[in-house]
Amino acid sequence: MNTLIQLIFGLLAALIVGSAVMVVSVRNVIHAALWLIACFFGVGALYLLLEAEFIAVAQVLVYVGAISILILFAIMLTRESEGARYMVSGWRLVVTALVCVALFGAVLVPTIFTHTWNVPPPAVATPGSPAPPEVLAGVEDLGRGFVFSYMLQFQVAGVLLTVALIGAIVIAFEERARRRRVLTLAEEHEVRKRQKPARPPATGERAPSPQAAPMSDGEQG
Amino acid sequence: MTNAIPLEAVLMVAAALFCIGLFGALARRNMVSVLMGVELMLNAVNINLVAFWRYLEPGFVVGQTFAIFIITVAAAEAAVGLAMIIAIYRTWLTSNVDNVASMKG
Questions:
Q1: By CB distance 3.0 to 4.6 Å, which of A4, A24, A32, A128 could disulfide with B24?
Q2: What is the DSSP annotation of A54-110?
Q3: Residue A197: which pLDDT band, with cuts at 50, 70 and 90?
Q4: What pTM did the predictor assign?
Q5: Number of domains making up chain A
Q6: CB under 8 Å to A165, separation ≥6 — which residues?
Q7: Is B27 in a helix, a strand, or coil?
Q8: Is residue A212 in some structural domain?
Q9: Would you say B14 and B42 are in contact if contact means Cβ atoms under 8 Å apart?
Q10: What ipTM was assigned to the predicted interfaces of this complex?
Q11: All domains of chain B, ordered by start, with CATH?
Q12: Which Pfam families match (chain A) (predicted)?
């Protein structure tokens, strides 16, 4: 039984860390978002392994179901055509990697292994009577906590969500008069086909038309 | 379960996830990618909270409550952040963090 749990934990850890590495290293943003979904799933399974069922379900609902879809929508709305410079380069990349590796190797790992965690010793079975079952706070206790002890915090979280919802709408709202019409792919194709004979093909750079939504993110400047 | 896996192993996974997320938030140029790095870091913190709850205080509900609140705040943060990204894209026509430097001194 222990070996099985260790095997599952090893696989989950490999899934989480591997997909997280893919999220930060892959060039295409859409692929990064898909790897992010895999990472969220791995974290949810880890919660399940840690016997926090409600948080595992909340993780799948909120992160996999909502946040990743939101991220995919944002990617598609900003229409990022990822160029060669998707990551910082040169000394900035070196410094960034150094900071992260140093944080991991010099701060976190020594702290984790030198600190004495007061993990309570596992219940041992005395001869004659089986080991007493471990008391584990479940969903019932969580619900009771939200209704009694953490009522105020629960309400504040509700207010926070409402404010965030209204704020997101206000920030992303666009007045009708200023709204640009985003062309569909077929219309954009038409526009580009009409422009092509007018331009010498040797330059290889497409001209932004006044009506067309911009394709690139202004990196050629 | 607590006998099979030491607490340090879970914390190591969370620490690795946090550092990878930090690297993503600092090194990527796309705003959405930066937000993905932040989400990875929040997930690492959540793993830590659930692990501490499971190993140190399994009978109390506080650790799980904290994790739920962090998920709530992460959802609010993602919604507002993505709305800001869309607003910035509309104004500057870019989603590259290096191009949005009008507040730089």
A1: A24
A2: HHHHHHIIIIIIIIHHHHHHHHHHHT----S-SB--THHHHHHHHHHHHIIIIIIHH
A3: low
A4: 0.82
A5: 3
A6: B79
A7: helix
A8: no
A9: no
A10: 0.93
A11: 7-99 (1.10.287.3510)
A12: Oxidored_q3
